[in-house]
Design goal:
single chain; alpha/beta; TIM Barrel; 9 helices
Length: about 280
């Protein structure tokens, strides 16, 4: 019953978002920026999971968002995606990187996704990715990530560059620095750091993010990652952002972009402008 209610709530929030995009409020003056060679009208984006199949898509720009990341989707499912509707938000496509993924499926999925999105995110926080994160699977993970980078360079030769990002989980006291070093070595464009206070994945987790200690911990993690990444790799922060103060703190800690999800399910669409207030000049 609880899962059904969450699904219903998410569908309602998405419908409200699509309706709001037709009748946007007066635009706010927000901070635009260049990240990964792309121009974002705002550093605030929508995280994967809210608009999984791209119903809102680029139209999220009418609400003031700089990007909207659809998915997460299996790489084999990218061939069934439709061309997204036009709009001013950049479109990310979040793709699951599973332990049993073949190199052929990886290459084919990236090739199908390439024309549809402005950037691609390889998701390593899903349940099917867990097996790849063990020490014994590190050679296999390296092979998949290296293959994706090789395919990116091949596709780039067609004249349209699509940055590659990897999504990693950051738990309390467990920032995945070794994996970040691997991404730096392979030359990835960006890191999407998913800050997670730990289980359970319920309303208790949402309430936990209202604790200033949790927010401070996320900012400390961003600072650690920024120190490691320097200017070599873009840094995106997601997880627990509920107010414009949270947005401002994550950006001040070193994130170039931030993403929101759960707050949109609880206060959509009116909360969006309050969050964007943290991105004003």
């Amino acid at each position: 019953m609880a899962d059904a209610m969450r699904h219903l709530g998410q569908q309602l929030a998405l419908r409200l978002a699509c309706l709001s995009a037709r009748y946007p409020r007066t635009p706010m003056t927000v901070k635009s920026l260049e990240v990964m060679g792309l121009h974002f009208n705002s550093p605030l984006g929508i995280a994967a999971g809210f608009d999984r199949f791209g119903r809102l898509g680029r139209r999220a720009g009418a609400l003031g968002f700089g990007c909207n990341e659809i998915g997460s989707l299996a790489l084999a499912a990218t061939s069934r995606l439709a061309t997204p509707a036009p709009g001013t938000a950049l479109l990310g496509l979040n793709l699951s990187l599973d332990a049993d993924l073949s190199l052929h499926t990886l290459r084919a999925g990236l090739a199908c996704a390439w024309p549809l999105a402005d950037y691609l995110t390889l998701n390593l926080i899903g349940p099917n990715s867990a097996a790849l994160l063990g020490a014994e699977q590190r050679p296999r993970l390296r092979q998949l990530l290296a293959t994706a980078r090789t395919e990116q360079r091949r596709l780039d030769r067609a004249g349209r560059r699509v940055p590659l990002v990897v999504k990693l989980r950051c738990l309390p006291g467990r920032v995945p620095l070794a994996l970040v070093e691997l991404l730096l070595e392979l030359g990835y464009d960006g890191l999407l750091a998913a800050h997670d206070p730990g289980p359970p994945a319920t309303r208790q987790r949402y309430r936990a993010w209202q604790n200033p200690t949790q927010q401070t911990q996320a900012c400390v993690q961003i600072e650690q990652l920024r120190q490691l990444c320097g200017k070599q790799m873009a840094l995106i922060s997601v997880g627990g952002i509920q107010t414009f103060e949270h947005v401002t703190a994550r950006l001040a800690a070193g994130a170039e972009l931030v993403q929101v999800h759960s707050v949109l399910l609880r206060a959509w669409p009116w909360q969006a402008h309050r969050l964007l207030a943290g991105c004003k000049y």
